[in-house]
UniProtKB/TrEMBL annotation:
GO terms for cellular component: cytosol. It comes from Rivibacter subsaxonicus. This is Short subunit dehydrogenase. Pfam families: adh_short. Belongs to the short-chain dehydrogenases/reductases (SDR) family. The keyword Mitochondrion does not apply. It comes from the Bacteria. InterPro entries: NAD(P)-bd_dom_sf, Sc_DH/Rdtase_CS, SDR_fam. Signal peptide: none annotated. PANTHER family: OS04G0390700 PROTEIN, RETINOL DEHYDROGENASE-RELATED.
Protein backbone atom coordinates (compact mmCIF):
# COMPACT_ATOMS: atom_id res chain seq x y z
CA UNK A 1 0.00 0.00 0.00
CA UNK A 2 1.20 3.49 -0.77
CA UNK A 3 0.20 6.93 0.47
CA UNK A 4 0.73 10.04 -1.66
CA UNK A 5 -0.97 12.89 -3.44
CA UNK A 6 -2.67 11.97 -6.70
CA UNK A 7 -2.72 15.03 -8.92
CA UNK A 8 0.01 15.87 -11.41
CA UNK A 9 3.13 14.03 -10.35
CA UNK A 10 1.16 12.26 -7.61
CA UNK A 11 -1.23 10.87 -10.19
CA UNK A 12 1.73 9.60 -12.23
CA UNK A 13 3.12 7.90 -9.09
CA UNK A 14 -0.28 6.29 -8.42
CA UNK A 15 -0.62 4.99 -11.97
CA UNK A 16 2.94 3.65 -11.96
CA UNK A 17 2.43 1.90 -8.62
CA UNK A 18 -0.73 0.24 -9.91
CA UNK A 19 1.02 -0.67 -13.16
CA UNK A 20 3.78 -2.36 -11.16
CA UNK A 21 1.34 -4.47 -9.20
CA UNK A 22 0.40 -2.47 -6.10
CA UNK A 23 -2.79 -3.91 -4.67
CA UNK A 24 -3.90 -0.62 -3.18
CA UNK A 25 -2.76 2.98 -3.41
CA UNK A 26 -3.84 5.63 -0.93
CA UNK A 27 -3.83 9.15 -2.33
CA UNK A 28 -3.73 12.08 0.06
CA UNK A 29 -5.86 14.82 -1.50
CA UNK A 30 -7.68 17.89 -0.22
CA UNK A 31 -10.91 16.90 -2.00
CA UNK A 32 -11.34 13.12 -2.30
CA UNK A 33 -14.45 13.52 -4.49
CA UNK A 34 -12.25 14.79 -7.34
CA UNK A 35 -10.18 11.61 -7.57
CA UNK A 36 -11.56 8.70 -9.56
CA UNK A 37 -8.94 6.07 -10.39
CA UNK A 38 -9.55 2.34 -9.98
CA UNK A 39 -7.33 0.88 -7.29
CA UNK A 40 -6.79 4.23 -5.58
CA UNK A 41 -8.42 5.11 -2.28
CA UNK A 42 -8.63 8.86 -1.80
CA UNK A 43 -7.81 10.06 1.71
CA UNK A 44 -8.66 13.62 2.77
CA UNK A 45 -5.30 15.15 3.62
CA UNK A 46 -3.87 18.62 4.04
CA UNK A 47 -0.25 18.15 5.13
CA UNK A 48 -0.31 21.50 6.94
CA UNK A 49 -2.92 20.22 9.43
CA UNK A 50 -1.54 17.89 12.13
CA UNK A 51 -4.99 16.44 12.91
CA UNK A 52 -5.48 15.49 9.25
CA UNK A 53 -2.09 13.79 9.11
CA UNK A 54 -2.90 11.84 12.28
CA UNK A 55 -6.28 10.78 10.85
CA UNK A 56 -4.68 9.63 7.59
CA UNK A 57 -2.02 7.64 9.46
CA UNK A 58 -4.62 5.92 11.63
CA UNK A 59 -6.63 4.98 8.55
CA UNK A 60 -3.68 3.76 6.45
CA UNK A 61 -2.29 1.03 8.69
CA UNK A 62 -1.09 -1.16 5.81
CA UNK A 63 1.20 1.40 4.13
CA UNK A 64 4.52 0.06 2.87
CA UNK A 65 5.69 3.14 0.93
CA UNK A 66 5.20 6.81 1.77
CA UNK A 67 5.80 9.26 -1.06
CA UNK A 68 6.02 12.80 0.29
CA UNK A 69 5.04 14.68 -2.86
CA UNK A 70 2.94 17.62 -1.63
CA UNK A 71 4.51 20.93 -2.54
CA UNK A 72 3.80 24.57 -3.25
CA UNK A 73 5.86 27.30 -4.90
CA UNK A 74 5.34 31.02 -5.16
CA UNK A 75 7.39 33.55 -7.07
CA UNK A 76 9.49 36.06 -5.19
CA UNK A 77 12.85 36.81 -3.65
CA UNK A 78 14.06 36.95 -0.06
CA UNK A 79 13.69 40.74 -0.02
CA UNK A 80 10.11 40.75 -1.35
CA UNK A 81 7.56 42.50 0.83
CA UNK A 82 5.71 39.22 1.45
CA UNK A 83 8.77 36.98 1.84
CA UNK A 84 8.07 36.08 5.49
CA UNK A 85 4.48 35.03 4.73
CA UNK A 86 5.65 33.15 1.64
CA UNK A 87 8.34 31.36 3.64
CA UNK A 88 5.85 30.28 6.30
CA UNK A 89 3.41 28.92 3.73
CA UNK A 90 6.04 27.08 1.68
CA UNK A 91 7.86 25.66 4.72
CA UNK A 92 4.48 24.57 6.10
CA UNK A 93 3.85 22.38 3.07
CA UNK A 94 7.32 21.58 1.71
CA UNK A 95 9.13 20.91 5.00
CA UNK A 96 6.69 20.45 7.87
CA UNK A 97 4.32 18.35 5.72
CA UNK A 98 6.92 15.62 5.01
CA UNK A 99 8.12 15.84 8.61
CA UNK A 100 4.60 15.28 9.98
CA UNK A 101 3.87 12.42 7.59
CA UNK A 102 7.23 10.77 8.26
CA UNK A 103 6.70 10.99 12.02
CA UNK A 104 3.17 9.63 11.73
CA UNK A 105 3.93 6.80 9.30
CA UNK A 106 7.44 5.60 10.25
CA UNK A 107 5.94 3.34 12.95
CA UNK A 108 3.38 2.02 10.45
CA UNK A 109 6.13 1.31 7.91
CA UNK A 110 8.17 -0.43 10.60
CA UNK A 111 5.22 -2.57 11.62
CA UNK A 112 4.77 -3.57 7.96
CA UNK A 113 8.32 -4.85 7.54
CA UNK A 114 10.24 -1.61 7.07
CA UNK A 115 8.79 -0.11 3.93
CA UNK A 116 10.27 3.06 2.49
CA UNK A 117 9.89 6.85 2.49
CA UNK A 118 10.48 8.76 -0.73
CA UNK A 119 10.70 12.55 -0.46
CA UNK A 120 10.17 14.43 -3.72
CA UNK A 121 12.65 17.31 -3.71
CA UNK A 122 13.92 19.72 -6.37
CA UNK A 123 17.10 20.99 -8.00
CA UNK A 124 16.09 24.22 -6.25
CA UNK A 125 17.40 22.51 -3.10
CA UNK A 126 20.92 23.40 -4.29
CA UNK A 127 20.44 26.16 -6.86
CA UNK A 128 18.44 29.15 -5.76
CA UNK A 129 17.38 32.35 -7.51
CA UNK A 130 15.26 35.39 -6.69
CA UNK A 131 12.47 33.96 -8.83
CA UNK A 132 11.79 31.06 -6.42
CA UNK A 133 13.85 32.02 -3.37
CA UNK A 134 11.50 30.74 -0.67
CA UNK A 135 10.67 27.59 -2.60
CA UNK A 136 14.38 26.83 -2.90
CA UNK A 137 14.90 27.46 0.80
CA UNK A 138 11.98 25.19 1.71
CA UNK A 139 13.29 22.41 -0.54
CA UNK A 140 16.78 22.84 0.96
CA UNK A 141 15.19 22.34 4.36
CA UNK A 142 13.40 19.23 3.03
CA UNK A 143 16.74 17.93 1.73
CA UNK A 144 18.24 18.36 5.22
CA UNK A 145 15.18 16.64 6.69
CA UNK A 146 15.67 13.71 4.31
CA UNK A 147 19.30 13.29 5.31
CA UNK A 148 18.53 13.66 9.01
CA UNK A 149 15.72 11.10 8.87
CA UNK A 150 18.02 8.68 7.05
CA UNK A 151 20.48 8.82 9.95
CA UNK A 152 17.74 8.53 12.57
CA UNK A 153 16.13 5.56 10.86
CA UNK A 154 19.52 3.89 10.36
CA UNK A 155 19.96 3.96 14.15
CA UNK A 156 16.80 1.86 14.32
CA UNK A 157 18.07 -0.58 11.69
CA UNK A 158 15.92 0.99 9.00
CA UNK A 159 18.30 2.87 6.69
CA UNK A 160 16.50 1.58 3.61
CA UNK A 161 13.36 3.50 4.59
CA UNK A 162 14.30 6.82 3.12
CA UNK A 163 15.09 7.83 -0.44
CA UNK A 164 15.26 11.34 -1.94
CA UNK A 165 13.89 11.85 -5.45
Amino acid sequence: MKLHNATGLGLAFAREALGRGARKVYAGVRDPSKLRLAGVEAIRLDVTRPEGVAAAASRCTDVALLINNAGIATVGGFLSADSIQSARAQLGTNFFGPLRLSQALAPVLGANGGGAILNVLSAASWINSPLLAMYGASKSAAWALTNGLRHELRAHGSSRWLRPA
